[in-house]
Amino acid sequence: xxxxxxxxxxxxxxxxxxxxxxxxxxxxxxxxxxxxxxxxxxxxxxxxxxxxxxxxxxxxxxxxxxxxxxxxxxxxxxxxxxxxxxxxxxxxxxx
Length: 95
What we know:
InterPro entries: Mopterin_synth/thiamin_S_b, RnfH, RnfH_sf. Helices cover 23% and strands 32% of the residues. The chain is α+β, with helices and mostly antiparallel strands.
């Protein structure tokens, strides 16, 4: 029997979140974990090809092999560039 590890897969929208705990075989990749999690069925309409992925806020590739207690995170594209948003706030007159 293959060694098992415990991981999480998460994805969040402003009004809804997905968080699934999984027990998978050691050697499972990020891509395999996403497929096993059922996130595509639970959150219809997400385009996994357009999303970036990471483990604990560090960007990773789909072929990254997972370790015990990793949390796979699916990142939505940014709506606004954070640098431009800071510039707009700084340029705004203070009251």
